[in-house]
Amino acid sequence: MSDRVFIFDTTLRDGEQALAASLTVKEKLQIAMALERLGVDIMEVGFPVSSPGDFESVQTIARTIKNSRVCALSRALEKDIDAAAQALSVADQFRIHTFISTSNIHVQSKLKRSFDQVLEMAVGAVKYARRFTDDVEFSCEDAGRTPIDNLCRMVEAAIEAGARTINIPDTVGYTIPSEFGGIIQTLFNRVPNIDQAVISVHCHDDLGLSVANSIMAVQQGARQIECTINGIGERAGNCSLEEIAMILATRKDILGLETGIKAQEIHRTSSMVSQLCNMPIQANKAIVGANAFTHSSGIHQDGMLKAQNTYEIMTPESIGLNRNHLNMTSRSGRHVIKHRMEQMGYSEQDYSLDQLYDAFLKLADKKGQVFDYDLEALVYMEGRAAADDHFQLQQLVVQSDSTEGMATATVRIEAAGEVVTEAATGNGPVDAAYKAIARASGQSVDICSYKLSAKGEGQNALGQVDITAQYQGRNFHGVGLATDVVEASAAALVHVMNLIQRADQVADHKQKIQQRKELGGV
Ligand code: KIV
Ligand code: ZN
Predict the structure, then answer these.
(1) Does Manganese appear among the keywords (predicted)?
(2) Cα distance between the two ends of the chain
């Protein structure tokens, strides 16, 4: 049996479906490109039948990504498979992933069918998907709670129908490692055609066992692990990619298995996903938590000074975390910025040096010293802003009397070429600024969550504000980053307003196309 484990990333499907505010097509593409650099073998990037937005993002990613195989999800229904095949058809090579539930609970309560009927649907779906590609994956949803005889029958029939990858999900994160390993072992012992497919696992983390279950499964012969960056996903999430990759790399002595993951991309990809998805990483999270390589007690620090391997089983550098924070000032030239970006693993296609350098100079004027993490934050913000933003915040002036709980804000906003100035009072500087922006833009939104965090270290940190706002039943995620937290708060609101504006334009455009069609036009 091969010692290569395929990494199937589902951050943009299972991970994305669990977010409060969905990602834009541009954000999904940014993540897909980072996953490609990270070296994932397969990336599942959406569920095209679910919405026109999902269809568009799958298609855009399929058109762009060349070094990882792009995959889309479909239920065991022809219309789902058609949508997946159509969205993926722009790719050189692609995978269709089709699934149906197999556990008694799901078959009886959710599907309201007999197991034999479900088996027939699964076989039909795999055969139908094979019309579009040889690379068909079939998943037995809730396999972890499926009676083993039924699971063996289903796996054999799906392979017979043409599935080249069979996925065994522990959909509700119910099994424990010995039990899950036993399921995989039984499949290898009892399914006669099992050698004609790659066995994959997809474990959820409801009991915190997703990574342990996946490792147990590869020890029993599974050769694909489905996982997500930072373990994001439904409920408690999925198996975390960075943990799997580093377990297989660090304990190769015992496991003897390999992946194609370029570990040095882990830190950067993890931060990007956390930022764009507005999903903070707990400080003590394995591999990518802020404390994962921090040594607090005197005894540990003493040990580390004597030899790094006293308290570290892997180095921060191995996941691309650079402990040397070189500082730059407004006297640093463009070549210094370019060089630092190269050292941090960014290529020139990842950002615009002109825009980054302009933003760097402005920040250096305000802050004095600029650090690596500031540059990364600026690149991230550059990725989010668009040249055609409808609203631009030109000026914000705030006066605040904290003892009285009173503040006044004046804002100047440019909206599509027209400049508007408005003032408002509030119970604090952010409240006043938000009211003034609402007046100046003529738009008001419901803020559902507001989060302020430090981006960087100590007093030098920038303030980052993440807000989620609701507008016409949809959630939008806005981000602002500045040396001043009120300015960061205002920028986050303006970001949300631009997202809403763009969503309205898309809706208008679609409505016009629909009207034209109804009138018999092209
Ligand atoms: O958890 C699950 O079972 C899934 C399937 C669609 C693979 O996400
Ligand atoms: Zn799942």
Answers:
(1) yes
(2) 56
The whole-angstrom distance between residue 313's C-alpha and the CA centroid of its chain comes to: 27
How far does Cα 174 stand from its chain's mean position? Answer: 24
**Binding-site residue ranges:** 14, 202, 204, 238
Q: Which fold has domain 389-507?
A: Double Stranded RNA Binding Domain (3.30.160)
State the binding site for Mn(2+): 14, 202, 204, 238
Instruction: State which ligand 1 atom lies nearest to the alpha carbon of 143.
Output: 3
CATH 3.30.160.270 domain range(s) in the chain: 389-507
pLDDT in tens, 256-296: 999 999 999 999 999 999 999 999 999 999 999 989 998 88
Record: fold of 4-275: TIM Barrel (3.20.20)
Q: DSSP 3-state helix, strand, coil percentages of the chain (rounded to 5)?
A: 50, 20, 30
- Check residue 4 and give its pLDDT: 98
Can you state the angle between helices 241-250 and 266-277, rounded to 10 degrees? 170
Going from the C-alpha of 196 to that of each of 102, 121, 215, 276, the distances in angstroms are: 21, 21, 22, 39
Return the number of other C-beta atoms located less than 10 Å from residue 130's C-beta. Answer: 17
Mark residue 162 as left, alpha or beta (left: phi above 0; alpha: psi -120 to 50; beta: remaining).
Answer: left
Question: Which part of the chain is CATH 3.20.20.70?
Answer: 4-275
Neighbours of 194 (CB within 10 A): 18
Q: pTM of the prediction? A: 0.85
